[in-house]
Design a protein that fits this description.
Length: 418
C-alpha cells in the first residue's frame, strides 16, 4: 500500500485514516493568514534558518494535518525526504493551509506570506528553493510568478522551483465518478449515516480548487463535461503573469512513466458495477475516446440515468500518478471509492473492480503536452518536451505523490547542485 504525501480524498472518505503518529515538534511555527508554516532546521545549521526549502501541501479536504504530511514525507518506508534535505544543509519549511479546497490564487497569497517570512528570518543570503506536492506545485508556481510581476511585492530570492506530481496541464477526475458521486448525494445525501460522507465528497469535487485543476468538470450529474469557469479564469490569471516564474530554475517529477505505457486500465471496460438494496444495475466505465456512455446510474424504483461523454481521450488508463487513499484496509483509488460507496449503500458489487485510474498524467506533471490530446497522452516524453528545465519520471505508474527514493533522491540532488 503506497503512502502518499497528499491524500486526494482525505477526511471525506469513509475509510480515511483517523490519525497518524505525531510529527516531531517543529523548531518554529509561523501562523499565516491562510495557513501555518512549520520550520525544521537542518542539524548542520545550529538552529538557524540558513538555506530554506519551502514545501507546500496540495489538494485535499479540510486543513493541512502536519502529522499526515510528515508521515508521507518521512515515514513512508521508501525515502526520508526531510532527513535527506537536512543532510545537505537545507532547512525544511512545511507550508500548510486552513482550507486545501480554496482557490489556488487564495492559497498562493499564503505561500507569498510564507516566502516573505522565510526571507525575513533567514540568516545569510542563500537563495530559497520553493515548490510543492500535487496542487502545491501550482500554488507556489503562481505565487512566485506573481511576486515577479507585482511591483508591490519584494523579490522572492528563490533559485529553484520544484513540483512533485503537480497538475501543470490539468488533473483528471473520472466523469463517471463525478456523476456517481453527485447522483448518490442527490438521492441519499440526507441519510444520517452515509449522507454526510456523500455531501463531503460531492463538495470536494465541486470545490474551487477542484474546479481550477480539473481538465473536465461536472457540477451535477447531467452537466456537460468541460473546463469550469473557475479553471478558465485561473488559466487567464496565470497567463497574465507569464505562465511561470522566470528567474528560477524549474524542476519537477512525475509519479508516472515517460515511456507512454499506461496503467493497464482498459478503455471502455466496466470498472465497477453494483446492484441490490438501493441501486439497480449501476455501473461506471473506464473512459474511452469518442462518444461513450461512461455510467449507468439507477436508484431502485427510478428510471436509469445515462452519463455520456464525447471527444474525451482515453485518460483513465494513461501513464501518470494514480488515485490513492491511505487507509487501514487498503487503497480504494477512484473507482474503488465508488465500489465502497455502493457497498455502504446496501448493494452487492461485482468482483474484479478496477479500483484505480490516472489522476495526474505524466505529461501534465512535467508540463510536456496537452492532456486533451489522446496521442500526446500516450506518446513517450522526450528530454526537450517539457516547460521545466529538468524533470524525472517514475519507473512505473504509482500512487500520486508517493515519495520514493527514485524521485526524492533526484530532487535532493538537483537542490544540492544549486
Amino acid at each position: 500500500m503506497s503512502t502518499p504525501v497528499v491524500d486526494i480524498w482525505g477526511p471525506a472518505s469513509p475509510q480515511a485514516r483517523s490519525s497518524f503518529p505525531p510529527a516531531p515538534a517543529a523548531h518554529d511555527e509561523w501562523p499565516l493568514e491562510g495557513g501555518t508554516a512549520w520550520v525544521y532546521y537542518s542539524p548542520l545549521n545550529r538552529r538557524q534558518l540558513t538555506r530554506p526549502v519551502i514545501l507546500s501541501d496540495g489538494f485535499s479536504g479540510g486543513s493541512t494535518n502536519l502529522d499526515e504530511i510528515w508521515h508521507g514525507l518521512e515515514e513512508n518506508g521508501n525515502f526520508r525526504f526531510v532527513s535527506e534535505l537536512h543532510a545537505i544543509g537545507r532547512d525544511v519549511i512545511i507550508l500548510g493551509y486552513h482550507d486545501r479546497t480554496a482557490s489556488i490564487t487564495a492559497n498562493a497569497e499564503t505561500a507569498i506570506e510564507c516566502i516573505r517570512r522565510a526571507i525575513h528570518e533567514r540568516v545569510g543570503v542563500a537563495k530559497l528553493a520553493v515548490g510543492g506536492f500535487s496542487m502545491g506545485g501550482l500554488i507556489t508556481r503562481y505565487a512566485l510568478a506573481r511576486m515577479e510581476n507585482d511591483p508591490g511585492l519584494p523579490d522572492h530570492e528563490t533559485a529553484t522551483y520544484l513540483s512533485y506530481d503537480s497538475p501543470h496541464q490539468g488533473a483528471w477526475f473520472p466523469v463517471s465518478l463525478q456523476a456517481f458521486t453527485h447522483y448518490a448525494t442527490d438521492k441519499w445525501g440526507d441519510v444520517p449515516t452515509l449522507g454526510p460522507v456523500l455531501r463531503q465528497l460531492s463538495g470536494l469535487l465541486n470545490s474551487p480548487a477542484a474546479k481550477e485543476m480539473a481538465a473536465w468538470h461536472i457540477g451535477k450529474v447531467d452537466a456537460e463535461p468541460a473546463q469550469a469557469p473557475e479553471r478558465l479564469a485561473f488559466l487567464d490569471k496565470l497567463a497574465e503573469l507569464g505562465g511561470w516564474p522566470r528567474s528560477v530554475r524549474k524542476i519537477g517529477v512525475a509519479n508516472g512513466v515517460k515511456t507512454g505505457v499506461g496503467n493497464g486500465a482498459e478503455a471502455g471496460a466496466t470498472a465497477v458495477r453494483g446492484d441490490g438494496e438501493t441501486l439497480q444495475d449501476t455501473w461506471l466505465k473506464i473512459q474511452a475516446q469518442g462518444d461513450q456512455i461512461v455510467a449507468r446510474l439507477q436508484a431502485a424504483g427510478d428510471e436509469a440515468t445515462m452519463v455520456r461523454t464525447s471527444g474525451l481521450p482515453d485518460i483513465d488508463g494513461a501513464p501518470g500518478g494514480v488515485f490513492t487513499m491511505q487507509s487501514p484496509v487498503g487503497d480504494t483509488g477512484s473507482f474503488g471509492l465508488a465500489a465502497l460507496l455502493m457497498s455502504l449503500l446496501g448493494n452487492v458489487v461485482d468482483p474484479g473492480v478496477i479500483t484505480t485510474s490516472c489522476f495526474i498524467p505524466s505529461i501534465s506533471a512535467v508540463a510536456s503536452g496537452d492532456i486533451t490530446d489522446p496521442k500526446a497522452l500516450h506518446d513517450p516524453i522526450a528530454a526537450g518536451d517539457s516547460a521545466l528545465d529538468a524533470f524525472h519520471c517514475a519507473g512505473r505508474n504509482e500512487g500520486h505523490t508517493t515519495m520514493t527514493e527514485e524521485l526524492g533522491a533526484w530532487l535532493v540532488n538537483e537542490i544540492a547542485a544549486e
